[in-house]
Amino acid sequence: MRRSPLIVMTAVLALTAVTGCSDDDDKKPAAAPEAASAPPSAEPTVSLDAPDGTAGTPKAEISDPSGFAPFSVQSIGVGAYEVGETQADLTEAGLLTNPVDAAGCTTATGTGMFSKPEVFLSGGKVVMVKATKDDPRIGKPLAELQAEFAEGKAVTGAAGATGWEVVEETNSLLFVATGGTVSAVAGGVTASVQKNFTSGSGC
């Protein structure tokens, strides 16, 4: 089964976060014997040891994924959650939580490493993602995004919601606005993005 390199990399990094500390402890170098007649020195000494006394290079850890820089949703998805990625691969990599199935559409939550987007899957594959926080464009005036994506068009969703849709081949990027301010960003297969926006649910 093909797995996205980004999914594989994410799984490896997450595994490193869990095992990194124990591995380093097992590999502590033995302390060097003290010199028998080392003369006292007035020169300041510089230690390359970590604060806990373990020597070595800095560790690459993911102790708090929520501390990662925000990701911007695109028409193909966001981070590891690109259109076409399979639910099986994402689940195996530990990148999906709380999946809920409803009428052929599965919704789940992405990892904090990618700003916890809402992930929509149909037929076992990602068809859309939506961010309601952390995406750097949320909170901006809709007019600013309309100027940036001038090729887009105004759309109306469920309960009179307003949005700006940018179609890119078979996918769409949608900015949803509340009171003239962007409150959500969705990206994915055009049919799924439009259905979710106009009906308020599903994919």
What does this structure look like?
This protein is an alpha+beta fold and 203 residues long. It has a domain at 70-199: Pathogenesis-related Protein p14a (3-Layer(aba) Sandwich), CATH 3.40.33.10. It contains four helices and ten strands; from the N terminus they run αββαββββαββββα. The strands form two sheets. It has an eight-stranded antiparallel beta sheet with strand order 3-4-5-6-10-9-8-7, sandwiched between helices. The protein has a two-stranded antiparallel sheet with strand order 1-2. The longest helix has 22 residues, at 5-26. The chain is globular and about 40 Å long. It starts with a helix and ends with a helix.
How are the SSEs placed, and which strands pair?
Blueprint: H1 5-26, E1 77-78, E2 81-82, H2 87-92, E3 96-102, E4 105-110, E5 118-122, E6 125-131, H3 142-148, E7 153-156, E8 162-168, E9 171-178, E10 181-189, H4 190-199
Antiparallel strand pairs: 1-2, 3-4, 4-5, 5-6, 6-10, 7-8, 8-9, 9-10
Keywords:
two-stranded antiparallel sheet; 4 helices; Pathogenesis-related Protein p14a; alpha+beta; globular; 203 residues; 28% strand; 8-stranded antiparallel β-sheet
